[in-house]
Amino acid sequence: MSSESGLKQRKTINAESRFANTHSSSDNYQNQSDNDNSEENNDEYDADSKETRLTLMEEILLLGLKDREGYTSFWNDCISSGLRGCILIELALRGRVELERQGMRKKSLSNRRLILKSDTPTGDVLLDEALKHIKETDPPETPEAWIEYLSGETWNPLKLRYQLRNVRERLAKSLVEKGVCSTEKKNFFLFDMTTHPLNDSQLKQKLIKKVQDSVLLRWVNDVNRMDKRLMSLIYLAHSSDVLENAFSPLKDEDYEVAMKRVRDLLGLDPETECAKLTGSSSVEVIWAVVAAFNK
Known about the structure:
Blueprint: H1 26-30, H2 33-36, H3 56-64, H4 79-93, E1 97-99, E2 114-116, H5 125-136, H6 143-151, H7 167-177, E3 184-187, E4 192-195, H8 201-215, H9 228-239, H10 243-247, H11 252-266, H12 270-275, H13 281-294
Antiparallel strand pairs: 1-2, 3-4
Helix pairs in contact: 3-4, 3-7, 3-9, 4-5, 4-6, 4-9, 4-13, 9-13
């Protein structure tokens, strides 16, 4: 369940920077934030948008996929649980789940259970499968427990039926259907494996730029004012060990600024930040998932 305690040391990469003006003050961004973030402030997934829209799970997998090879690193053992965390947050952002209400006796985020808010199907196979499991479980479980169950990382044999299987392959198939990736067969001497090389480099570059902008040109220096989906993307990209893939093209100076701000985010206490907000059930789930990965 636990993610790596620190961020990886950056590999030396000589690449052009897209952020020569990183050190301009965040105040310059504030003057135009209302216009620039008008689309990002919409937490609901817009299924009718003409632009290709990706779920959090698809974005994390896309960041982890090698462009030409079409598969994630064999050494990455974090992305599996990270994708399950994405599923819980995606369900929360779509108004399907929330944390149980606080009673007279206050509970920590790690002890509050995830409950069904709406059982209306989302139209996404993975999300609806997870939603069905959550709906049928009584008594409810915590987000941390659900990440373990959906990953199949539990000692309880009765909970193994909740495991979501072939998640990466199913997400890759979705990316193929959206025209982002293609499908190929690759021989690895002892076995053949289906791979999904990048087909739409422009969309992935746009995703990478969005992640970079969030901690550089569009840095707001206040996590509570960040877009919920974008904040989740940063946290889950780190928990899935794919955040480095978005930052590696940066020049050294921009990279140091980006990583310092990410460390600031990772150092925040979920309990404290969640207590600052009221009436936002989706944000509570986000912080509960973050707390689960912080353990």
